[in-house]
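User: As part of a screening pipeline, I want to sanity-check one entry by hand. Below is the sequence and the SMILES for NAP. Please return the complex as C-alpha cells so I can compare it with the automated output.
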Amino acid sequence: MRPLVVLAMARNLNWDQLEGTALVVGQGGIGRAIGVVLEREAPKLKLLRAGRGGPLPLNICSEQSLNDLKTELQQHGPLRLVINTAGWLHSGGIGPEKRLQAVSRAGLEESFAVNAFGAILLAKAVDEAFGHGEQAWFASLSARVGSIGDNQLGGWYSYRAAKAAQNQLLRTLAIEWQRRRPAVAVTLLHPGTTATALSEPFRTAVAPEKLFSAERAAEQLVSLIAKQTPLESGRFLAWDGQNIPW
Ligand SMILES: NC(=O)c1ccc[n+]([C@@H]2O[C@H](COP(=O)([O-])OP(=O)(O)OC[C@H]3O[C@@H](n4cnc5c(N)ncnc54)[C@H](OP(=O)(O)O)[C@@H]3O)[C@@H](O)[C@H]2O)c1
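Assistant: Here is the complex for your manual check:
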C-alpha cells in the first residue's frame, strides 16, 4: 500500500511555481544546458550548479567533496530536484574498448568510479537535504548502452558495465526511497546521442538528424523529468519517454 501522499502527487506540476533548491551535478555539455533550461522553466528554484570546475566545486569521486556538498546543502532550502549529469567515457588515451584485449583495470576503475559509484554516493550525500512531503525528483543520466537486454553490438565493456551498475544501484535506491522518501521520484535517463565532448570522437556514424544539440537534449530531459511522479520511481527511460529494457 503506497502512502496517501504519493497518490496525491501530480504529473506535470507547474515548474514555474516550484520552490526550494535544485542541484545540477556535472557542468559538461548537457549539465550546463540543463542549468539554462531550469533558470527559464523553474525560476523560483534556487539553482546550484556543481562540477569539478565549480561554480559549486564537487568531485563525485571524492568522499571529502561529497561530505562538503552535504554540509553546503544544509545552508539552503529543501531539495526539490537533483539532476546528475556527471559521466565518463574517455580521457587520457583510455576509452571505450572495441575488443577484450583493450580492457584495462584503469579504464574499468575510472568508469565505475564516475558512472556507477559516483551516482549512488551522490544520492547518499543529498539524502537528508530532501524535505518531507513535497514532490521531488532525483534523476541521473545513464545510457542506452548500459542496457544488458538491449546489448546486440558488444564492445564498450567498461562504460556499458558501469552504466548497468548505476542502473541497479539507483533502482535499489528507488525501492528504499519508496518507503523512506515517498515523495521523491528516482529516474534513470538516456539523453540520446548528443553533441558534447563525451560523444565527440564516436559520432561519425550518427545521422545529423539523430544527433541532438545539448540544448535540445536538456529541454527533452527536463520536460520528461517533470512528468515523473513517485508512482513511477525506478524507471530507465529514453529521452522520448520510452522504457529501456534493463
Ligand atoms: N553525449 C551523449 O551522446 C550521451 C549519450 C548517452 C549518455 N550520456 C550521458 O550523459 C551524461 C552527460 O554527458 P555529456 O554528454 O554532457 O558529457 P560531457 O560534456 O563530457 O560532460 C560530462 C561531465 O561530467 C563531469 N564529471 C566527470 N567526472 C566527474 C566527477 N568525478 N565529479 C564531477 N563531475 C564529473 C565532467 O567534468 P569535467 O568537465 O570536470 O571533466 C563533465 O563536465 C553522462 O553521464 C553521459 O554518460 C551522454
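Points to compare against the pipeline: The chain has a mean pLDDT of 95. The chain has one domain: 18-238.
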